Amino acid sequence: xxxxxxxxxxxxxxxxxxxxxxxxxxxxxxxxxxxxxxxxxxxxxxxxxxxxxxxxxxxxxxxxxxxxxxxxxxxxxxxxxxxxxxxxxxxxxxxxxxxxxxxxxxxxxxxxxxxxxxxxxxxxxxxxxxxxxxxxxxxxxxxxxxxxxxxxxxxxxxxxxxxxxxxxxxxxxxxxxxxxxxxxxxxxxxxxxxxxxxxxxxxxxxxxxxxxxxxxxxxxxxxxxxxxxxxxxxxxxxxxxxxxxxxxxxxxxxxxxxxxxxxxxxxxxxxxxxxxxxxxxxxxxxxxxxxxxxxxxxxxxxxxxxxxxxxxxxxxxxxxxxxxxxxxxxxxxxxxxxxxxxxxxxxxxxxxxxxxxxxxxxxxxxxxxxxxxxxxxxxxxxxxxxxxxxxxxxxxxxxxxxxxxxxxxxxx
Length: 412
What we know:
Blueprint: E1 17-22, H1 31-40, E2 44-49, H2 59-66, H3 82-88, E3 92-98, H4 100-108, H5 114-121, E4 126-130, H6 134-138, H7 140-151, E5 155-156, E6 160-163, E7 169-173, H8 177-190, E8 201-207, E9 211-214, E10 217-219, H9 226-237, E11 241-247, E12 257-262, H10 265-275, E13 281-284, E14 291-293, E15 314-316, H11 320-326, E16 334-341, H12 345-356, E17 360-365, E18 376-383, E19 388-395, H13 396-410
Parallel strand pairs: 1-2, 1-3, 3-4, 4-5, 8-11, 8-13, 11-12, 13-16, 16-17
Antiparallel strand pairs: 6-7, 9-10, 14-15, 17-18, 18-19
Helix pairs in contact: 1-2, 1-8, 3-5, 4-7, 8-9, 9-13
Keywords: Decarboxylase, Flavoprotein, FMN, Ligase, Lyase, Magnesium, Metal-binding, Multifunctional enzyme
Function: Catalyzes two sequential steps in the biosynthesis of coenzyme A. In the first step cysteine is conjugated to 4'-phosphopantothenate to form 4-phosphopantothenoylcysteine. In the second step the latter compound is decarboxylated to form 4'-phosphopantotheine.
EC number: 4.1.1.36, 6.3.2.5
């Protein structure tokens, strides 16, 4: 065994070293699922629970799942100086769940157990996944502690909305362990870089709008929402407060993201304008229908023998991207659009960039088996300043990171 319970580097194929802190809340049992995701994906994990956490999950469980010893006190294995070494040798520290008490101690630099000592000595990225009752999360003291931690460079994931302990429901639920893992994966991929979107509010639209014809039919498109969700996940991992406006997707909510569900283009417009009021950046990745039926049939449209159907009259939908670009809610707001093209991709993209008035336009070539529903993407990001950034074929998260890089360059 190497330093502070981690195996020696020579005994392993340079696995990323992760410290999983667990504080004393009922959601502590979910840390086992997060631990499993880390170990099964090749990370070496040292679990550091608080004494209170062990009331919910025993040390033997954490030790068996991680393959490493578990301790809560600075007096355990003192010859290894664990209160210093664990944080010094970690590539990532994640605390899930992070209670109000743990957040307060971390914000004020208190160190009365092994986990809080580890947080003080860590020089790697730190992620907190809070879980507590709504009133505790919304209390000014907790909000100030969260703001302090974010200002110092920590990533504090927004809690989810849902069922809490007992009959209570509200914001404060621990995000899904899979979502927390995705945030941590992105933070690890960026290494020791500062979360450059901390303190920023970004709005992302995703999915495809549906315009109803009758109670059972609609006009829609093939957008899965995967690129918009990748943008939301990567922004959260870079420290942003993220509002994701999702149109007809079948994807799980990303951890730490406020999700607003919409159906039609008109509903999406209303949600975007509301969320954009205090946003630093708006990224319109949703595929918004250009037209909608002029009339909605309250009953199912039926076939009539030997008669052709009545023509469907279409009317224009609002141009949301052009509207938010022309009427920016605040000075310095960065607007990003997406355009799906099938031919003359760059020429059409340049024309659309000028017409829409946005700062950046991401151009995708689409078609059968291209882009829609895929886990990968390739694009060209055009800038109003004449810049042109080709993005080679690769994961949609890679494109998302490049988009945020370009947005950060244009903020302020």
